[in-house]
Amino acid sequence: MDNTKTVQTIQQGNAVLGIELGSTRIKAVLIDENNDVILAGNHNWENSYINNTWTYSEKEIWEGIQSSYQNLNRKVEETFGFKIESLKAIGLSGMMHGYLVFDKSGEMLVPFRTWRNNFTGQASEALTEKFSFNIPQRWSIAHLYQAILNDEAHVKDIDYLTTLAGYIHWKLTGQKVLGVGEASGVFPIDSKAKTYNKQMTATFSQLIEEKSYGWKLENILPEILTAGEQAGSLTDEGAKLLDPEGKLAAGVALCPPEGDAGTGMVATNSVATRKGNVSAGTSAFAMVVMEKELSEVHPEIDPVATPAGAPVAMAHSNNCTSDINAWVSLFKEFTQQLGVEKDDNEIYSLLFEQALQGDRDAGGLLSYGYLSGEHVTHFEEGRPLFARSSDSNLSLANFMRTHIFTAFAAMKIGMDILIKEEKVELDEILAHGGIFKTEGVAASILAGALNTPVSVMKTADEGGAWGAALLASYMANRSGETSLEDFLNKEVFSEAEILRVKPKQEDVTGFEEYMERYKSGLAVERAAVENLK
């Protein structure tokens, strides 16, 4: 890094900020004119399970955002001797879907209901049937309709419905908008017009007509914008919300807020057809840019969009790395009892590398990392579970292999529909998330799971915060009518370092054998849910 040039970039207000609120971490990333990361700040947080609802409080949201920004600013001061006073652009991202509703005075009507809640099954099924279009349980419209079906008192007072990213953007800018990719997980969109689907909006209005609410759906949803458009500017109030120290100047341009799926696509340069990406964290989802429409409605597949509005098929699973993280913490505790101090990266690398030494099918072991329900396999609740038969080959290698297998297993069910039934052709999958940090381990297992080459960039661990910053940079720096795809190819990824792993036949066969065991064992997981309260 050229410190002199970087200092000038920050001091002259030409750096770009990206913030993403993930399930367990809020990350703030500062990038330069070359779209390279200068520094990053983090804040760890966890959702709470209150009154049978997965949620984060308003206080936690703002304390987390401020903490991540302050952490970044502290690093800037330690490295360069000053703090950020101005920026060229800001991009915001958050966990997709969920339910945040507000009354006319801007007060939140009920606690934030996150994507992780699986209690909207009745609404999801009814809307899917009425629309002839898959409406997953975590979508905002499913949450709204379930609240209507439940006769919840707050519904009559709704003035605005949005997502986590949309809420933060609104408070920072005063603008009630969403990026088209994020909006596509709120309510179905018309991919050509890049607006909410008018026919389905009319159908929904007919469904709730007898309720005589004082609002119309189209009036309480955010406006849709596409990548490259400006979505407002940081207000004085917004600047103080982001930086309570008061050093950051107002007036910074913001791009449309996007979900973590969209920023994941941007961060892996997978917004073009025949490319897909896998984002693996608390949840796992694969995004495939489609060349044609799906032949039929699949409950396991979400029809969404890229930040530029191109149609995407998403295979999403609610659970991914949380159970792995818990086991790694247990191993770390064991090493500490032995008097051996290892940092987290060393322990993860050691354990993950063991997974490559295991039997191809993980030795007959089985696990379900279901900390929450799993919609793909029809679980409203989950129980983390590890099981083996009396003749299984229990070893550390197989133990780690089965937990990495199961992190991708539910998502694979959806991907099998796309690849095997819909005959979607993929040239490669680009993967990102902390699970891919140990070189060649999770990538090779995923390649075997999907029977598709998997590429991991050196920037894989930067994640969606970097993707949000890139969307802001695209808005601020693009020339003319440059497409998002061209901007990423030419300005960001032209010299990217990439590790590409091709699937090995023994890994493909081993994962298929594991999936047979996984599907057969769902009855065991069901018994755990029913009997472990």
From TrEMBL:
Give residue ranges for domain Carbohydrate kinase FGGY C-terminal.
277-475
Asked whether the keyword Transferase is assigned, the reply is yes
| Carbohydrate kinase FGGY N-terminal domain ranges (all copies) | 16-241
Q: Which Pfam families match?
A: FGGY_C, FGGY_N
Family statement: Belongs to the FGGY kinase family.
**GO biological process terms, semicolon-separated:** carbohydrate metabolic process
Keyword annotations = Kinase, Transferase
Protein name per UniProt: Sugar (Pentulose or hexulose) kinase
Q: Does the keyword Secreted apply?
A: no
Under Gene3D superfamilies, the record lists:
3.30.420.40
Single GO molecular function: kinase activity
